[in-house]
Design brief:
This protein is an all-alpha fold. The protein contains eleven helices and no strands. Helix 1 packs across helix 6, helix 4 packs parallel to helix 7 and helix 6 packs antiparallel against helix 7. The two termini are 18 Å apart. The relative contact order is 0.14.
Amino acid sequence: MSFPSSKKITRILGAELDKLVTLPSIWLTLTGTSILNLLLAAAFTSVGLQGAAGTQSILNIGLASMRYLQAGFIILGILATCSEYNGGQIRTTLTTIPWRGVQLSTKHLALAIITIPAAFIMAASGVLYTFTMMRDTAVVIEIDTMIKTLLGATGYLTCTTLLSAAIGALFRRTTPALVVLLGYYFVVSPLTRDFPPSIRKYFPDTAGYYMYMPPSTDEINFLTPMQGAGISMLWTLIFITVAIVLFRKRDA
């Protein structure tokens, strides 16, 4: 089987992007996640105003919802790859696009195109709300620090989404993929907090934490933002590669 030309790859990317854009569950997930993010930002900001606000950073409070916000992006990634298996649409897709590796790769790329602006807007909206409410009481932050932090948060949410999409492609069913990923991020990972930091820092969610939280003088920073990004990207690429290899070998 010949490899598709660059023009065909562009068309495949356009087709995958069109499928995601026209999928109602994608927009319902993004809308619900955005609303939840604002509600959580308001709640954390309210707590900050009632507490020792003068010692808190706007970024720390504005991004406190990230732990819960990632759930929406996990769901987004799983829906992107599992939706085609509902009703057997994947067979139609593979009839039209016989290059399996290219098809799944471009799906991840199309998902990244949608995720990056959505993740940035949500992360920025939380920080902006906190800044608006606490600008007279919280610790002042520099613009370049804010931009780097928001880019790190965007990168982490994007990696989480793509990793979730790869897991969805492995399971091919929404429910098992959700159980595994939500179980890890919200049950297993919190239970590993007593693990030595030298081990925990290599977990995808822990490494991702260092991508967007500014270095603190009050605690040991085991990873730099770049190191955290490198580990998170490595986890993502590993799962995408495994998903592509298995996708090429097994039946639709």
